[in-house]
Please model this.
Amino acid sequence: MLTGMALLLDSFWRAAAYCLRPRVMALSVLPLVVMLALALGLGYFYWDAAVQGMRAVLDASTLLASFWSWLQGWGLGDVASVVAPLMVILAVAPVLVVVSLLLVAVLMTPALVSLVAERRFPHLERKKGGSFIASVAWSLGSTVLALVALVVSMPLWLVPPLVLILPPLIWGWLTYRVMVFDALSEHASKDERQEVFRRHRGSLLGIGILAGYLGAAPSIVWASGVVFAAAFFVLVPLAIWIYTLVFAFSSLWFAHYCLAALERLRAETAETAASPVGHAAHAAVASSRGAVGANAAADLPVPAPAAAVDAPVNGTPSI
Model:
């Protein structure tokens, strides 16, 4: 049985290896496909109206009108007609990214947990201790608590070391609570899920914190796309793909760890349940043997008492 750090490292390398599987790679590209489909659909139906509305907003500003006139004086032409489409793209792109990532996140975690269960734990019983509604309620409740913790801890971010510790710690706590619930909802009962939380809280929180730090890597690529506007349409999709791949790796890490911990918990429970039964059976056999011995002793014939001889009277035996 794997314990402690061995279970942590074992689930880590298994998650990294699973990221190279075709199904996982296809799921990592899915947000880009969804985002592209949404962008083409919205652009086909609403692009002209959105650009005209943005142009009206830009022309309605007196300050911007003066700025456009100044740029035209330098021979740059109608700058507002170029800025309006860019403003529409900058306004819509974050919404498309968030919607795509949320949609894939809802679909990806169950698919990855099923992949791990089918290939590594096909014998593990599915007790279905968490429904979809319970998962959503758990995720929303954990998110609210994490946001409250972030707001409360903001004054501490002014202390230089804490700004690098508190946000990853809070997001790591949120990640581990949401992903552990999703990883165990299909296979574990409610009591088993709570026991896994209790036994492995430290390791699971550590996985969540490391996943949070890994999730910061795409932000660097995203910021580069904003700074280098010419590479925006290349770097931003790259950042989305990296973020999705990190999300897939985190889900696989939690799935491998949690299902292995659940398997070990059930094995321990079975051993504990089997041990008293063995003692009880041994005691029952001993008791039955004792009862048989007692019954056999009771069936033995009882010897008859010896005949009594009357004592002599005056030295003459009586007839």
Observations:
- The first helix runs from residue 4 to 18.
- The chain has one domain: 4-274.
- Confidence is low (pLDDT under 50) at residues 291-300, 304-319.
- The two ends are 91 Å apart (CA to CA).
